[in-house]
Amino acid sequence: MADFIQSGRQWYAANEDKIENYKRALTLFTRAMRSCPCARGLKRGRCTCKDFEKVASQQNSIYREAMYTCHCDVGRSFSKCDNLHHIEALDLRAATFVAMGLLGHAMKDAEWILELAPQLPDGYLRLGNIAHLQENDDFAWKMYTSGIEANQNTTVESSPKLLQLYEARKPLNRLFFRQDPLYLPAEIVTQIFSCLACDELLHCLGVSKQWAYMLTSPIYAPLWRDMTFSEWGGGPSNDELRKMLSWAGDGGARKIVTQRNMALTDSMLTMLLEASPSLEHLEFLDLPVDLCFPLNRKTWNRLRYFSFKKSWLASHDRFAADLVGELPHSFLQNAASSLEHLEVTGIPAQWYDEVPLIPHLPNLKILRMSGTVRINVPFPMYPLSIAFPSLEQLFIGPGLSHLDPAPLSIWRERRQDIWPHLKVLIFELNWPRSQRHVDIDTRLMLHSLMCLNRGKPLQHIRFHFEIYEYMLCMVSGIVDSLFSDFDDDRALDFQNLRSFSSNLFCLSPKEARTLLSNAIQTKRLTSFDINFPEHTGANHPTSRDLSHLRSYEWARGAPSIQEMGLYHFHFWQYPEDHEHHPLAEFVATFPNLRTLSICSLYYDWEQPELARLVDMILRVTHLETIYMKDVNHTVFAQLRQAAQQRGVRLMDISYRRQYQWPVRLEA
């Protein structure tokens, strides 16, 4: 047999008269096959009972088909054969047919190899290769995979053909490698299914009995401890909720997030909370107005995050003190020992009362609160300092129309004691206000908050106003100045400030130096904004902006600055051949500046001039990102091209920038 095979190989490899040489090689390979002892001197034919492609399409075992399926005389007359010369001769004959373009004949020989020796990789490899040539990649991938599975106890190092199976299958894996994820390690399964909302996970139980059994087993209890419901689901039934809580194991849910369209009832809420004594994160979006929290004294001593949104203020007179059970006051008070993060949208009416009913949360560090635009009632801030004495991050708005600084004398006299660790102060407003006394009170309150403990703990200050520019005149009381009665500025020290951001407040030279200079000297300030003074008259450019810019000479070249905002400026229009602009020269002095926000309504009618200015800035800086208005306008086409050539991203400033919350603090 070996001699026939060797001679056949020589004829196959001969370069002259290929077709005739292939035919001679086929004759020799055939003689080698027929001389195998398994034929016992008889003419051994091929079994035609097997249909490997049909078996593969039905996801059944190709190995079992090759091993056991036979209804003809071949199976009764001849046994399996793993004679390597027999298998090699058939494989070479199939390869010769492929070289001659006779794929049908090659397929039959490959199937014959598989019939003779289903435990060897040779037949799977040859059959898969031919299927791939026929562009039947699905069948090819299944054939390669079946060969790998049939040889799972064989090492790749000991079988070159098995290695070839793996290599042949590799490029097809991307299209056809489908594996039941539940067969993966438990930690990977948990990571995969944790991407689903809990009601979506509930639907997965219907895939199969095995999935239902596995996903509800104790090993996957962490999946059910995160009860985040999807936005489009209607929520589970009471019975489904009870089962989900049982699958979560001891302590129940650790995280609960309900959605606006979830049909949450009092009984469901009570069940969720009482079955989850180890709850850590609780978040409600648009709770039903008549929903009540449980009134029992159960203590949730692991709850760290609580967020709720509810129409508390449909009418200020609607809520009375005897309806405290509807508010989460008792619930929050029971969680006071652990609660660190509170987010409130729709402030409870009792927080506005003369003697406000606010839960005492001594360990609360992060507070974000917003009211409703329909209520124009002064919100008293001082009671919060008593209720939440350890606050570190405070986010007010949007939606609080007015901050009440009363009693102002206490804010001044106790500025060393109130919120001694306040590091983040954020105020947002998203509609204009025309009453000047309201603006003054708000400004006084913000001033008082900034001056707590001489401003030393503050790391981040951000005042953002979502106001249409044509309405700026309605809020001029805010624009003029940030500080009022700035009589004790020498006692202030903002040396730990990392960022100051405001798209509306214009700081006077004295205010800017007081707020920013120490932090620049300590090299801690990385970001600040400059708002230029409001223009009077016909809004013509004046030397006032140049003077305002020069008042920041002390900040020029600060190496710590990475981000800057420039707002409401209006400079003289410079000649076309003018290569210098005071604003561009100022920005260029900051060696590590990477992000610039630049916006001014005065250039809405002078966009070509703004494009020239930004192009000048591009040429003298190493920016990575620029935020500006109408960035996709045709007038900025050349600017976009110039930015692209320099690897600078031009982003539209009108799209609300997403700021991190809570803010990551530095030690």
How is this structure best described in words?
It is a single chain. The chain is of the alpha/beta class. Among the domains are: 2-176, Alpha Horseshoe (Serine Threonine Protein Phosphatase 5, Tetratricopeptide repeat); 526-667, Leucine-rich repeat, LRR (right-handed beta-alpha superhelix) (Alpha-Beta Horseshoe). It is built from 26 helices and 17 strands. Helix 22 (509-521) links the parallel strand 12 and strand 13 (527-531). Helix 7 runs antiparallel to helix 8 (122-133) and helix 8 (122-133) packs antiparallel against helix 9 (137-150). The longest helix is centred in the first third of the chain and has 17 residues, at 18-34. The radius of gyration is 38 Å and the shape is elongated. It starts with a helix and ends in a 15-residue tail after the last strand. Residues 178-227 form the F-box domain. It comes from Claviceps purpurea (strain 20.1). InterPro entries: F-box-like_dom_sf (IPR036047), F-box_dom (IPR001810), LRR_dom_sf (IPR032675), TPR-like_helical_dom_sf (IPR011990). This is F-box domain-containing protein.
